[in-house]
Amino acid sequence: MYTILQQIVHDNNMHAKWLNTLSYMENAGARKISACESLTKVEIIQLKHAAEEHRHAYYLKKQIGKINSQVCTTYSDHELLASVATRQYLNSLDIKTCKYLQSVFTMTKEEMKFAAYLFVTYAIEVRADVLYPIYQRVLTETSSKIMVKSIILEEEGHLEEMISQLTTFSKNWRYHAEEILKIEEELHTQWIKTISKEVEQDCYAQ
Predict the structure, then answer these.
(1) Which residues contact 134 (CB under 8 A, 6 or more apart)?
(2) Per residue, what are the HEC states of 12-62?
(3) How many angstroms separate the most distant Cα atoms in the chain?
(4) Residue 77 has what DSSP assignment?
(5) Mean pLDDT of 28-45
(6) pTM higher than the cut 0.70
(7) 65: DSSP letter
(8) Could you tell me if 156 and 126 are in contact, meaning their C-beta atoms sit under 8 angstroms apart?
(9) Cα angle at 193 between 12 and 17, to 5 degrees?
(10) 3-state secondary structure of 1
(11) Residues 6+ apart with CB under 8 A from 45
(12) Which residues have CB under 8 Å from 148's CB, separation 6+?
């Protein structure tokens, strides 16, 4: 991941697409959280998470302006890195998580939506706790004007909140969470491989 990010940050066009890709994923995550809300039983922490993920998407989008304000203005395929894999990542994690939860729990549709929110968000926060610090390290080493330290702090808080909610949800949550993390790890590996291939092809073309 570190090596790939070094290549990305050293290419302005690629770096703008990377920021836009992260923004897209934060926005998709916020929309997923909102989609999992009950019509009536909505906890304040869930509203907080959706709001903060939307803010992360906005913040990352704004950072693109430090590179070039005329690029990556939308989430169109040509403005994302590994667009197909990027769009499939969260959806695949959501679908596979629901299938797993259906195999181990007996729940109503509404309960399933909430359980999926807990486990998918937990897996994403675990990933964010790895990805963003590596990205910030590369940004610091290259004296970039772009920073993601504020996102790192909030994502750490999100992870603590998800653990608290999961502890309430099930006494065996750690076992099930590990299974979900295995699913996420496989999807993440595929995503990074696709991005790496795209970055290498772009470098070769230059």
Answers:
(1) 1, 2, 5
(2) HHHHHHHHHHHHHHHHHHHHHHHHCCCCCCCCHHHHHHHHHHHHHHHHHHH
(3) 54
(4) G
(5) 80
(6) yes
(7) G
(8) no
(9) 25
(10) coil
(11) 161, 165
(12) 60, 132, 135, 136, 139
Instruction: Give 38 or 125, the one with higher predicted confidence.
Output: 125
Model confidence at 38, in pLDDT bands (50, 70, 90)? confident
Q: Which amino acid is at 148?
A: V
pLDDT above 90 (res 107): no
Give me the residue label for tokens 């959706």.
Answer: 50
The confidence band for 152, taking pLDDT boundaries of 50, 70 and 90, is: very high
Task: Give me the count of residues in the chain.
Answer: 206
Place of tokens 């549709």: 109
Say how far apart CA 77 and CA 74 lie, in whole Å.
9
